[in-house]
Design a protein that fits this description.
With about 375 residues, this protein is of the alpha+beta class. The protein folds into three domains: about 5-100, Rossmann fold (3-Layer(aba) Sandwich), CATH 3.40.50; about 105-285, ATP-grasp fold, B domain (D-amino Acid Aminotransferase, Chain A, domain 1, 2-Layer Sandwich), CATH 3.30.470.20; about 300-369, no CATH class. The chain has nine helices and 19 strands. The protein has helices at about 15-25, 40, 60-70, 80-85, 105-110, 110-120, 220-235, 275-285, 350-369, and strands at about 5-10, 30-35, 45-50, 75-80, 95-100, 130, 140-145, 155, 165-170, 175-185, 190-200, 205-215, 240-250, 255-260, 300-305, 310, 325, 330-335, 340-345. An eight-stranded antiparallel beta sheet has the order 14-13-10-11-12-15-19-17. Helix 5 crosses helix 6. The radius of gyration is 20 Å and the shape is globular.
């Protein structure tokens, strides 16, 4: 990729996936994220730690980018969190080139009123959605926060009193799914169909627990999603790696939920040598890369390992090779916080394996403390 600066900036809630891919692909990578995981620090030429993204002011976000770039020509890729800060992309200096969609496209995708209006205009199916609660909801409805992620913002509509910047959607029973796709402004390529699992929807806990690749869709469903994403790509000039979340009803009907306009954590389910950075940079310039990786790869599980109680990471802990996003020795993680992520492959692909490997890891961490 000689036409791109070899200096790459990554800003995200967690930048490890993108940073490791950038290092593997030969980029000089500078990272700002919220975790300072040891596997991120290992590949970063420069690193800045961010406070929780809902605590960052716009000026702080902008200054972080400027500090990382140090006035040098560079590309910028943003992961989770860009939803909150996309208007600032119009203020980037000329030496920083953002690799992603336009501000107008962000506005269409990240502002729920605009997104639902677009879906209605195109006659694309989505759950019934309203933007005020001055009505009595029949059946199960959820309240969702705009510009949020990971499911932690989703609550039962009846318990959303007093919350700001929310909208309401009817709950659709069935399979929670997503498709990772790559777009170049005029065309798109679907890469992976995934299933998503919340911690416990029966208790209205919609926090994302796991993502598995290899979701089986019939040809009609696949073609339906391809046509939708093709139309959205042309309509919005979508470019880069991103994902579409959707719900599949028991009868097989698809309801669109949202597009995540950035590389998402589900990209980790792609083959380990997938050149995520080159794909992002090329497609953002209107070029559709040749996909040489074997798609889809063997089934994988991405499992988010939450701490069941307060835990301090012991010194010199021997992390298994399927663990990523590793906290530093002595890190204190509160109950409910993420310890690390597990990427399970080959024969470890049943959902119960995620529970078993996570429980064993927590047991070993506790006994070593």
């Amino acid at each position: 990729m000689a036409d791109h600066p070899k200096l790459l900036l990554i800003l995200a809630q967690s930048g490890r996936m993108l940073a490791q891919s950038a290092s593997r692909e030969g980029y000089i990578v500078r990272v700002a994220d919220c975790y300072a995981d040891t596997d991120t620090l290992r590949v970063a030429d420069k690193y800045l730690k961010l406070p929780p993204l809902d605590k960052i002011l716009n000026d702080e976000w902008r200054q972080t980018i400027m500090t990382l770039s140090d006035g040098q020509a560079c590309s910028l890729i943003c992961g989770t969190g860009i939803e909150r800060f996309y208007p600032l992309l119009s203020q980037l200096p000329s030496h920083i080139k953002f690799a992603g969609i336009s501000i107008n496209s962000f506005s269409q995708l990240c502002e729920p009123v605009n997104w639902i209006a677009l879906l209605d205009q195109l006659s694309f199916p989505h759950p019934p959605t309203v933007f005020d609660n001055n009505q009595s909801f029949k059946g199960k409805w959820l309240a969702k926060s705009a510009a949020a992620w990971g499911g932690t913002h989703i609550v039962d509509a009846g318990s959303a009193a007093g919350r700001l910047n929310i909208y309401y959607q009817q709950y659709i029973e069935g399979i929670s799914a997503s498709v990772v796709f790559l777009a170049n402004g005029i065309d798109c390529q679907l890469l992976l169909f995934n299933q998503q699992y919340s911690r416990d929807t029966r208790k209205d806990d919609f926090c994302l627990q796991a993502i598995t690749s290899g979701l089986q869709l019939d040809s009609k469903q696949q073609q339906f999603l391809k046509q939708i994403l093709q139309q959205l790509t042309l309509r919005l000039g979508l470019s880069g790696l991103m994902s579409l979340d959707f719900q599949i009803s028991p009868s097989g009907e698809i309801f669109l939920l949202e597009i995540n306009p950035r590389p998402t954590s589900s990209c980790q389910l792609l083959p380990g040598d997938a050149p995520l950075i080159d794909w992002q940079l090329m497609s953002s310039k209107g070029v559709m890369p040749e996909i040489h990786a074997e798609l889809p790869p063997k089934k994988r599980i991405l499992w988010f390992c939450f701490a069941p109680e307060n835990i301090t990471i012991p010194a010199d802990f021997n992390w298994p090779d399927y663990c990523y996003d590793l906290p530093a020795d002595g890190s204190y993680i509160q109950a409910g916080g993420i310890i690390c992520t597990l990427l399970l492959t080959q024969d470890k692909t049943e959902l119960n394996d995620g529970h078993q490997f996570a429980n064993k890891l927590i047991e070993n961490l506790s006994s070593a403390a």
